[in-house]
Design brief:
The structure is a single chain. The chain has 333 residues and is of the alpha/beta class. Helices cover 28% and strands 25% of the residues. It has 9 helices and 15 strands. The radius of gyration is 25 Å and the shape is globular. Bound molecules: zinc ion.
């Protein structure tokens, strides 16, 4: 009896071992693949500020959305042939925790843009340890739905119920005007409709505010007018302890095209020549400065620094680290 038991035990053990180590007679196990990533956030310190990039989604910029000379556009087609990922873009919002206030800069697309590719910002925010109720202030660079769609559900409810939203008066006046919308071409109508629907519940709640000049909305933060892409397109530059971060909105859509050729514009730019001129001026100013740049459409974490590179500019992306401050490595233990 004892012997029979031990034989049975040994057979079971061998079978288990075979399955575990995968011997020559073991049945192949299905190697299940996992398509999902963890919801994305990435944070770093800028002086005393905690800045968290909040992943909203990724997509591919259509080359026909770029405008430039024939030579420039032929160059894009050739570069795209060599590297099919040339025009990969992201959508990103950013949370600035000043210690007193939690300020969201751009809110991702929600369900208003991108056919389901975007809209993950709130999940990313929760993963980073915050809730939508924690957000006190939202600063929006402009009213295109890939930057403000995340503010409002598709059935018209505020996603950030305690937040006051700030936008340039020129921006608000343009997109929320029924008269301007009525005169705009057919293909521009969705931009007006989404801006109006997204703004509506904040206007009703008295939470929609506009600024027209250099008002001080937040201590240590400067408004940076960047009109061209849209009439009131605005950057927000925060400084703390000698360090700076600039949230530049849509100064660049296609990183690897428009930094080398700042004159290439996007079809969404309301004023093409003003958009190119604004980009030129800003890149010229930023290249020699040590300013961290937060660009919603840069590849995640959408943070980096600019430098001069040949006739154009280069981008040095922030690289993942799990430490606030990186120091040179020491070979010692
Ligand atoms: Zn955009």
């Amino acid at each position: 009896m004892l012997k029979k038991h031990s034989i049975r035990f040994s057979a079971a053990l061998l079978a288990a071992l075979a399955a575990f180590v995968g011997g020559p007679n073991a049945a192949p196990r299905a190697a299940q693949q996992h398509p999902d990533q963890a919801p994305g956030f990435y944070r770093l310190k800028v002086g005393d500020l905690e800045v968290t990039a909040l992943f909203d989604g990724t997509g591919v910029f259509d080359p026909h959305w770029l405008n430039g000379t024939t030579a420039a556009m032929n160059g894009v087609q050739q570069a795209l042939h060599d590297d099919p990922h040339l025009l990969d873009v992201a959508d990103t919002g950013f949370l600035v925790n000043t210690g007193k206030q939690r300020i969201l800069v751009d809110a991702g697309a929600g369900g208003w843009w991108g056919g389901g590719a975007f809209g993950r910002l709130v999940r990313s925010l929760r993963s980073a340890g915050y809730t939508p109720e924690d957000v006190n202030i939202v600063l929006v660079t402009h009213l295109h739905a890939d930057h403000v769609g995340g503010l409002t559900t598709e059935d018209g409810k505020r996603v950030f119920p305690h937040a006051d939203v700030y936008v340039a008066k020129a921006e608000s006046d343009f997109w929320l005007s029924p008269d301007i919308a009525a005169r705009a071409p057919e293909d521009a109508q969705p931009f007006f409709q989404s801006a109006q629907a997204i703004a509506a519940p904040y206007i009703t709640a008295g939470k929609w505010h506009t600024f027209s000049g250099s008002e001080r909305l937040v201590d240590g933060m400067e408004l940076v007018p960047l009109s061209g892409h849209t009439p009131g397109h605005t950057g927000y530059e925060f400084a703390s302890r000698g360090q700076k971060v600039l949230f530049w909105g849509d100064i660049v859509h296609a990183l690897r095209v428009q930094l080398q050729r700042p004159e290439v514009t996007a079809t969404f730019d309301i004023d093409q020549s003003a958009a190119a001129a604004t980009r030129h001026q800003l890149l010229t100013r930023l290249a020699p400065e040590d300013v961290l740049i937060a660009g919603p459409h840069m590849n995640f974490p959408a943070l980096g620094r600019l430098h001069k590179d040949g006739n154009g500019y280069g981008w040095a992306p922030v690289v993942f680290t799990d430490r606030w401050n990186t120091a040179p490595l020491s070979p010692q233990k």
